[in-house]
Amino acid sequence: MGAEKRGKALLRLGVATVCAFAAQCLLTARRASVWDGIALYALAMAILAGAWRERAPARGEGLFREVIRGLWQALDRSALRLAMALVGCALVASAAFAAPGRHPQQPYMDLLALWLVGLAAFGGAFVRWGAFSNKALWRRALQPEGVGVGLIVLGTILLRAVAVEYIPSVLSGDEASFGLEALRVLRRELGNPFATGWLSHPSLYFFIQAAFIRWFGATTAALRLSSAFISGGSVLLLYLLAKRFWGRGVAFMAALYFAVYHYAIHFGRLGLNNIWDTFWALGSLYALTRGLQERHPGWMALGGLFTGMAIYFYLGARLVPVLAGVYILLWAWQEKGFWRAHGAHLILFGVMALLAALPLLAFFRLHPEQFTARWRWVGIFPSGWVASEMARTGRSVFSLLWEQFLKSILAFNAIPDPTFWYRPERPLLLWMSAVWFVWGVTYCLVHWRKRPCALLLIWFLGVVIFGGVLLENPPSSPRFVMAIPPVVMMIALGIRQAAGLVSDLWGGRKAVTWIMALVLLGLCTYESLHFYFGVYTPRRMFSDENTAVADAIGKYLRAKGPGTTCFLAGPPRLYFGHATIPYLAQGVTGVDIVEPLTDPQSLDIPAGAVFIFLPERAGELDALWPYYPQGTIWRYHDTRGNLQFIAYELP
Predict the structure, then answer these.
(1) Are residues 505 and 581 in the same domain?
(2) Could you tell me if residue 336 is inside a domain?
(3) Are the C-beta atoms of residues 233 and 205 closer than 8 Å to each other?
């Protein structure tokens, strides 16, 4: 460093030091503004940073210039594309900062349009549109591989969409609660897609379900179809990601098993947003992988879009940005010069993710309690579960956490789902597929230095920890949906490796390997489909008894039609407000009879009213006979012959 530069650096160091001491004096002075001290400290830091840059200019300036040059190249050195990107940022920012100031019942369609157009403008600035006119790209889709993948996607959708109104046979309370929120959207009582609704779930999903209800009516199928269709998108992304990692063979097996996996089929048939976790996670990681491998800005922008959109759906999808970040760190650990080579594209990835999530993040900034609401309710520490269990059992924190860990990590092999959202009465993997899953885990552990193997292990363990260990009542099946992609990929790897070992005994013939793999996969396919449609569905194990009764009452009242008044003698076990009843029986007025019915004349009973009695309150029916002797009695039973309720229809 020359004398002149040394003098400038010394001067900057002196000025920065004076500013820093002055800032500290302001921060400790009682009457001074804290922000004055912070601002002075910021000035001191900026001056000091300039002095350090003078001391070693080459590396810092080079990296900065490389990033700027990389972003300019990503924009194809086009001023028009730069303008598109800036306009996109401005549109998204305007929508994000205008949304919190509006009343929830005011229309938000203009802001939703601004957000979507802004995302399209920003992402479109980095897309090479000429690639879509490449005829080879479209011809490739018609090759045997493309046709095979298309058939798997179609089969995935059909296995979830056919008879979705009746399988599962009961509309759960959670599904119905989502449906009631969607109906609020259609009635314009809920207008903000960038907020939260029932149980702090982000409200954008309710708008998607509202569109299906508008097209198909307020039915059970309308609530569930979006899950079936998004499962088709998930299986396509699963194939593409697995192909990038291990080639076509493993990719086909993983995609095919996802299509027939009973756990994935079940949540692909529910009107809940859990299955969307797989879509956002797979999309984020596939686009990120392809973007980094090909150094393609368009794929990086798409990966950022998938990553940012995950925040609008089930809370388990909040693991997607964490997973993407860990994946990037893995890549940086294994590739020398990673940050210099990919810095511009990673900034693009992060900016796109931020733009996608920005409207909801702006809402959470004003309502931070909504962001952490579910964690406070079901987290083992904030809910007080750990403290109460320690007081009740005398066990240590480590002992409780170890038990939580064992329950969670054995969810697919040993510990059944204790909740009513699925409750298959066995682990989440059946006997044969569980074995190949363990083989796949073993393969990944042996080859943990390989980036794909490390990613699958981290992905699975992340779900185990954040969806199981740290939450109450593991292994709760809705919280483990995010683990389905790594599990099916490890099953495919396990089958492939098992078949390879058998093939080695026959001289290493490739044909023997794939015949053996297809046989093993076929057995797993039959096992899974037979269980879900041949065992689980006929037994009607889904949901709890109260919800099954509510579903039956809702369907009965739906047949009676709008304008009917229902007096429900169900409390304290069942109230008319159970979400399944009002969703299925829209237009029906419900009145809960809380106290035992002794004097019907105390009620305002219109003509054609219906009284419904649960079995334990059937004796109160006698009070109606003297006043309404011409009524009609109907008794409704479940498939096992158990009485669910008695309906007494007045003339």
Answers:
(1) no
(2) no
(3) no
Say if residues 434 and 457 touch (Cβ distance below 8 Å): no
The Cα–Cα gap between 263 and 6 comes to 67
Q: Is 82 helix (H, G, I), strand (E, B) or coil?
A: helix
Task: Give me the number of domains the chain comprises.
Answer: 3
Helix intervals (H) in 31-108: 34-55, 57-74, 79-98
Largest CA distance in the chain: 111
Least confident of 123-137, 508-522, 550-564: 123-137
Contacts of 78 (CB under 8 A, 6+ apart): none
| Same domain (yes/no): 516, 549 | no
Considering the domain boundaries, does residue 239 fall inside one?
no
Alpha-carbon separation of residue 138 from 133, 141, 238, 329, 540 (angstroms): 9, 5, 20, 35, 45
* Residue 612 bridge partners (DSSP): 568, 647
Rounded distance between C-alpha atoms, residue 520 and residue 508, angstroms? 18
SS3 content of the chain, % helix, strand, coil (to 5): 70, 5, 25
Residue type, 190: L
If asked whether residues 617 and 506 sit together in one domain, one would say no
pTM of the model: 0.89
The pair phi, psi for residue 591, each rounded to 5°, is: -130, 120
Residue labelled with tokens 């609660």: 177
Contacts of 414 by beta carbon, 8 Å cutoff, 6+ apart: 427
Domain boundary among 500, 527, 554: 527
Nearby residues of 534 by Cβ (< 8 Å), 6 or more positions away? none
Determine the Cα–Cα distance for residues 361 and 18; give it in Å rounded to an integer: 38
Three-class secondary structure of residue 95 per DSSP: helix
Q: How far is CA 210 from the centre of its chain?
A: 18
What is the spatial distance between Cα 473 and Cα 418, in angstroms, rounded to a whole number? 7
Please state the separation of Cα 51 from the chain's center in Å.
47
Cβ count near 83 (within 10 Å)? 13
Question: Containing domain of residue 412, as a range?
Answer: 385-527
- What's the pLDDT tens digit per position in 178-236? 999 999 999 999 999 999 999 999 999 999 999 999 999 999 999 999 999 999 999 99
Positive/negative CA dihedral, 597, 602, 608, 609? negative
Query: Which string of b and e fits 17-45 if b means at least 16 CB within 10 Å?
Result: eebbebbeebbeeeeeeeeebeebbebbe
552 and 497 belong to one structural domain: no
